[in-house]
Amino acid sequence: MSGVAREEVNPASSATFAPLENSTFRPIWIATQVSSLGWLIQMVAISWLMATISTSDVMVALVQASTTLPTFLLSIVAGALADNYSRRNLMFAGWCVIALSSMMLTVVAGLGIFNPWMVLAFSCLAGVGAAFTDPAWHASVGDILRKRDVPAAVTLISVGYNAVRSIGPALGGVVVASFGPLTAFAVATLTYLMLLWTIGRCKWHVRSSPLPSEPLTTAIHDGARFTALSSEIKAAIARSALFGLTSISILALLPLVARDQLGGGPIVYGILMAGFGTGALFAGICNNTLRRRLSQERLTTLSCIACAACCLSLAFTPSVAVAVIALALGGAGWVVTWTGLDVSVQLASPRWVVGRTLSIYYALSSGGIAAGSWLWGTVAESNSLSSALELSGGALLLVAGTGFLLPIRQWKDSDQAPLGFETPQVALELKPRSGPIVAKIEYSIPEANVEAFLEQMRERRRVQSGVGARHWNLQRDLQQPSHWTETFRTPTWMDYLRLNHRLTAADKELDQRLLALHLGELPPRTTLAIERPTGAGRKRDQSMRFFFRR
């Protein structure tokens, strides 16, 4: 069926502020808001500093790109690390890098030796730290809280940031105008140190895997493979990249709007940013109510239209008041879109791979933001500021229509935690790297159940391939048509164990549906074998196979 699939309105799974009852989530969330205040003050200082020391519109717009490009380049590696090592330690290390960049900005500002490229370099270093903290923090939400509280927690993270955004830029403008960039950078450094202290105090339990950590390249490959097989995650990622590409013009060009179109200084720029943050704050608080009334797909479409209206208003208005109202509308659309897409990726991802899927999502959305910052800055410099805003507004209207091709599916409330797996007993001694392993599951399916069986097997192929199965296929016996064999391979014995440890309760429900179609008192039989080469020069015992039957 073409067009957007029919969706039911998604009910709110948890009250917006329920996650704050958790004694671990609450202090980290509060400290994160304080550090976000420091981040926004620092970004105002960097943006305005760049606008005063450089005459290039592209250099001003590249301030946004400098913090997002590292996420595009490093996020996938960060996600693989978050799924295989301590997410808490990764958060701590990332914020250490951010604090280091702020300290270095404070030093160069105090010495007065900065230039545009140096400012971009330190801004980029902060982006490197953010590339490692974001996947680890968002993936940790599911470790700290119950699954039903995850949408509310993601909303709270966004609400908190945008609540700070409503005052942070204005405060940053006052600090920069009154005391200069040096003070702004010093204040930001102190807020980062406070968050580091809080992370050091707070610890949370993470269900550990009985298997050793995956090699980094294997972890990245498995994460990319799972993402490629999930239509829900691919749709969310594609929509986020397009939205970031088109909507970032609002923030990337805002210093130029304040300076050139409205004739203001850093305080006006801070007021405009506060308008954007205020709209985002109110939208975040109302997010649960909006989700009860509208599907996420409809909310995403309306949010794109709201951001388009913001761009077009900024292109024509000479009034600060009108610009603030337009930015409030754009901020509301911004937070609703990003919150919905983030939650869609989280709820579609099992715990074993959530860090990697989130990192791929952040990488491509940040790539869209970085490319958009450069694109709209180039258009503004080559043509005019109003032309860049008009074109981005038109592009956002096109993005609003992509729901017909890439719909955001209804959020599913299913258990994505791994169930665990008891290692089967085998007749030969195996090492973790022994393989390849061939698994065969034999079914007896009466003719009346064949169509239903094939439908379930299509889902089975997606599930098994997503957790690591290679060369999956289904065979039907020509002499006994009721006899069907599912076959797949894994490169090593350890990969086979990982595959089974990754299966969730939702995946196991598929086994029960297949069992209901299977004929006979005994369940489907599983056979495991190890492949061995049979070349002419090989010894006879190298061609042996061994079996495990269940």
UniProtKB/TrEMBL annotation:
- Specify the protein's topology with respect to the membrane: Multi-pass membrane protein
Example of a GO cellular component annotation carried by this entry: plasma membrane
> From what superkingdom does this record's organism come?
Bacteria
Task: Name the chain's protein.
Answer: MFS transporter
Print the keywords alphabetically. Answer: Cell membrane, Membrane, Transmembrane, Transmembrane helix, Transport
Q: Which residues form the Major facilitator superfamily (MFS) profile domain?
A: 24-410
GO function term, MF aspect, one: transmembrane transporter activity
Annotated signal sequence is none
Span-the-membrane segments of this chain are 28-49, 61-82, 89-111, 117-137, 174-199, 236-255, 267-287, 299-316, 322-341, 353-376, 388-408
What lineage is this protein's organism placed in? Answer: Bacteria, Pseudomonadati, Pseudomonadota, Alphaproteobacteria, Hyphomicrobiales
Q: Where in the cell is it found?
A: Cell membrane
InterPro entries found in the cross-reference section: MFS_dom (IPR020846), MFS_trans_sf (IPR036259), TM_effector (IPR010290)
The answer to whether keyword Hydrolase applies is no
